[in-house]
Amino acid sequence: MTSESKSPILVVENLRTVFHTPRGDVRAVDGVSFELRPGETLGLVGESGSGKSVLGRTVMGLISNDARTTVTGKVTLGGVDVHGVKRAVRRKLWGTEVAMVFQDPMTSLNPVKRIGTHLTETLRFHLRCTRKEAEERAVELLTQVGIPEPKRRMRQYPHEMSGGMRQRVVIAMALACDPRLLIADEPTTALDVTVQKQILDLLGNLTTERDMATVLVSHDLGAVAGRTDRVQVMYAGRTVEQGRTSEVFAAPTHPYTDALLASIPQIENAPHSLLRAIEGNPPDMANPPGGCRFAPRCGYADTTCTSDLPLLQPLAGPGRSVACHHPLLAGAAPVGSEHTHGR
Fold first, then answer.
1. CA–CA separation, 338 vs 343, rounded Å?
2. pLDDT value of position 3
3. Which of 47, 224, 46, 42 is nearest to 59 (CA)?
4. Are strands 181-185 and 24-36 parallel, antiparallel or unpaired?
5. Letter string b/e over residues 307-342, b meaning 16 or more CB atoms within 10 A of that residue's CB
6. CA angle, 319 as apex, 96 and 97 as ends, to 5°?
7. How far apart are CA 53 and CA 22, in angstroms?
8. CATH of domain 3-235
9. I need a surface site. Which of 106, 195, 212, 288 has the fewest CB within 10 A?
10. What is the mean pLDDT of residues 204-229?
């Protein structure tokens, strides 16, 4: 059975996360929607500040309504409305239905607790197993994520392990209770290139073996290119393009996606070649520009772009859509659109 034929594990509908600050309301996530099925990996890409991490935390239910934050829209995980249940019910979803791998493993681990304690606490809380059963399961998990001498590592503290080893421990913690959805938020930050590949390969293998759904949050397009089935490009809290990863990367239709891909060094480039940079800065989210939020940095922008906010429109192709008044590929304009640009 292919992932397309399976029922979605996760359904996100028109999700918005607004932070109320002294400077005004910050729409960190502004109307994002997508679905995710078992065995499928979705890549969330974009510059720092585009709303990727906030989206992941909101989906998980770590960000909810209070005096400083407003969350609207709907997140359905395994048939449960994540934001429609009480916090006590939501806590039971964490670990068993959804788990998260955070950016910095050193801040995810308690420096005064041994590695074994981190793992066994999670197992005993959610699975109600005995201490011995939890310790045996913890050793199995460390073995699965490729940590040598797992019994000895159980007695170590986080500072006694390398960054790559700590990240593997965090992954083991996330997978301890067999969640159906894993959100990996920049899981290779501050790791060297070799360890980055090992961690990404590990996540890919575990997704396939466990038939999980995985959200890979990253600003590294190279990491996303070969390890995700679909990609969602975010800018200023909104989705600007989405579709199958291979198709989006081969023929981007939004100027922002095209600019991101053009900024990646290419092996065939001559030595000392200048990289293409995206001019300007991301918008102030407390006071975003009118119309398309990318318009001030876009070479194709006109008066329509600065006055009218483009909505996601389907393209000719399965699952592809773009939010742009002037898509880059001639013949690939949104349904009903009269504006196209050749690349």
1. 16
2. 59
3. 42
4. unpaired
5. eebbebbebeeebbbbbbbbbbbeebbbeebeeebe
6. 5
7. 22
8. 3.40.50.300
9. 106
10. 90
At 44-102, the pLDDT tens digits run 999 988 999 999 999 999 998 888 999 999 999 989 999 999 988 898 899 889 999 98
Question: What would you report as the CA-atom Rg of the chain, rounded to the nearest whole angstrom?
Answer: 21
pLDDT band at 190 (very low <50, low <70, confident <90, very high): low
**Distance of alpha carbon 244 from alpha carbon 256, whole angstroms:** 17
Tell me what the mean pLDDT of segment 156-182 comes to: 91
Amino acid identity, residue 56?
Answer: G
Say whether 95 sits in a helix, a strand or coil: coil
Beta strands at 41-45 and 69-77: parallel, antiparallel or unpaired:
unpaired
Calculate the average pLDDT of the chain. 88
pLDDT above 60 for 205: yes
> What's the per-residue H, E or C state across 209-238?
HHCCEEEEECCCHHHHHCCCCEEEEEECCE
Assigned token pair, 2:
């292919």
Query: Can you tell me the distance from the alpha carbon of 293 to that of 325, in angstroms, rounded to the nearest whole number?
Result: 12
**Which structure tokens are listed for 139?**
């050793």
**CA angle (314 as vertex; 310, 317 as ends), nearest 5:** 145
- In this prediction, residue 294 carries a pLDDT of 95
pLDDT tens-digit series, residues 88-136: 889 889 988 999 998 777 788 999 999 999 999 989 988 888 999 999 9
| Domain range annotation of the chain | 3-235
- Distance from chain centroid for Cα 174: 15
- Which strand ranges, in their side-by-side order, compose the sheet holding 213-217? 98-101, 181-185, 213-217, 41-45, 230-235, 238-244, 321-322, 313-314
